[in-house]
Amino acid sequence: MYLEQVKKFTSNPILYFVLPVAFLLLMIVNYVFSMGVDSNAVIDQLIQQVGVNGAFVLMIAPLSIGLFLVWFWVKVIQRQSITSLTTSRKKVDFKRIFFSFFLWASITIVMTYIAYAIEPENFVVNFKPKKFLLFLGLAIILIPLQTSFEEYLFRGNLMQGLALVTKSRLLSFLLPAILFGLMHMANPEVVKIGPIIMMYYIGTGLFLGILTIMDEGLELALGFHAANNLIGALLVTADWTAFQTHSILKDVSEPSGSFEIILPIFVIFPILLFIFSKIYKWKNWKQKLTGTIDLN
Q1: Which part of the chain is the CAAX prenyl protease 2/Lysostaphin resistance protein A-like domain (predicted)?
Q2: Of 72-76, 183-187, 201-205, 286-290, minimum mean pLDDT range
Q3: Domain that holds residue 220
């Protein structure tokens, strides 16, 4: 069992919270200093200085490198195996990662095509072959590292630490999801769309938490998160998003927010959970999501 296996290790429980708390404090400081600052103007200035690809690397590289910090901390300081941080299985199931990745990548591509076909006036073609290929190379390397960092930090280290301290599946599931959502408060999308978008970020955290707990490992969450950020960055960019990229399309419409939030949270994510549950034969939902964790 993914959460129960923390009892195999004798690390001080405090060690599980050092990196998550430090990261969240950095996010809070960033949010405080960004209040009253036009984040889009800051991003535009950075792009003028180092270019679109350069700005992308500078923004994402710290998070990408953070994955190796998490692995080092868990392996050397906590003396816990990376496999046990990833899954309850004897070895990491890469088939699960790739299936989740390609399923969500396919859905994202189809939804983007439909949106473009229905309202082509909302998009302009942004495709520049040389710049796109360079960005593609950077994105394939950096984005999966960035998304994996967030998964290992929130659905891995923090979730297992909470399981060890609280012995509550519900708290271990809910708190990382809420903190994952709050981590995005400084994103320019929040300014553009409004606080309602926090429902999407927290809802996505809840969805990823359900994947992790019900499937007894991070594999499905790792694949989904990588596909969500990578394919999204390659397909569409907008002037008001955190990542300005050499994507294929550029969204020039004014976001309403409500539809983009309601569709994935209340329609698509439940459908995905149903698909995964049938494929991987998930059972005992109530016990796994809200029950007590036996660490004896």
Answers
A1: 133-231
A2: 183-187
A3: 15-290
